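Dear U.,

Please find below the material for section 3 of the report. The protein was modelled together with pyridoxal-5'-phosphate; I have listed the sequence and SMILES used, followed by the predicted complex structure.
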Amino acid sequence: MSKQKKFILQENEIPTQWYNILADMPNKPLPPIHPGTHQPLGWEDLAHIFPTECCKQELDTEHAWIDIPEEVLEKYKYYRATPLVRAYALEKAIGTPAHIYFKNESTNPLGSHKINSALAQCYYAKQEGTTNVTTETGAGQWGAALSYAASVFGLEAAVYQVKISMLQKPYRSSIMRTFGAAVTGSPSMSTRAGKDIITKNPNHMGSLGTAISEAVELATTTPNCKYTLGSVLNHVALHQSIIGLEAEKQMAMAGEYPDTVIACFGGGSNFGGIAFPFMRHNILDGKKTEFIAAEPESCPKLTRGKFEYDFGDEAGYTPLLPMFTIGHNFKPANIHAGGLRYHGAGMIVSQLIKDNMMHGVDIPQLETFEAGILFARTEGIIPAPESSHAIAATIREAKKCIETGEEKVILFNLSGHGLIDMTAYDQYINGDLMNYQVSDEEIAKNLKDVPQV
Ligand SMILES: *Cc1c(COP(=O)(O)O)cnc(C)c1O
């Protein structure tokens, strides 16, 4: 009999609640604070920007389990449960005794995990009488997920896409438009923030910072319009917990429990999604699973950042958040092709790192692509360059097991596929990419701009 490779849940086995690790954390994160007064913010202070229910979830340290609304669950069932797969071919290619499993979040039509939170945020917005949603997007995965979710719930979506990404990755704009979203390159002349930026620098090619500023301005100046965010915030990790909760059931079907859980790390949503449901057993039941977040060497906030109150965006419009940061003005080198460019880590993960409950690793760019290509050639899926950071970290752990002979059980999250990122693969195959390590001076210089609290 051949070995079982895929572990599939039936529709009625999909979890019906999300897991909120805030309720179980031994030390809660520090509160977000107002940049002017430095006073802690309550959910009421955020509700003019985000859907109210998301604001409440953001600061909920009480309820470990939150019901997934019926209508969101129904939409989840279009593409969930996602498969858990034993990566036998990858194990063989590495020659490791480790058992490698991956949770495949690339199987939905949008191609990444981001849809899990987009559906929830649009549902709550709709419930609250909102008619329009807006957001920023860089490479475009979040914008694509939000555009789809908005169309599902009958909302109008306006997406500000970083101008340079819009030019370099035209297909994601096409995807957003196909779902009916209005896509604007940022900086644009459609907002005051955009006009100011263009007046100062007519050739500005945009950044997540400019796009956030424009989307927040649109949300706060348009009636019935809310802003949404695809990562970093606690409520986003909450919605993503569906990944780990399913994986927990599927690992049980495989008769195993992970010794190590690995995910790539941009702002922390797919990491939190797969890791937190397992981490609850470390907190509550004395399990000893190791949790590894894989970030690019060229944007190393987890391993080389400082724990500080910093802005969530480049322009300094957001509340101050307690996080590991390399400074809100940080820009990864142009040569960096693998995504995960955000300067800070979410509040929950930052606290967990302080408490030694998880740790980060840095992956050089070339190792990332090498890992992605090995995965493609063994498992037949071309991973998103972001996800390849998790694959590279998994391969490192699996190689350690060759020396020790340990049959470690390693679970990683495949956060998305790379079929719209083939330009980056071409660059790698043509030899046009290189490694880039940030200098200590550069990090220190950026950290100087972090506000004093
Ligand atoms: C956005 C994205 C990430 C990074 O975001 P996190 O919030 O850290 O998960 C990783 N992988 C894919 C495929 C993405 O689209």
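For the text of the report, you could mention the following: The pocket of pyridoxal-5'-phosphate is lined by residues 112, 114, 141, 231, 264-271, 340, 384, 386-387, 415-416 (CB under 6 Å).

Regards,
Y.
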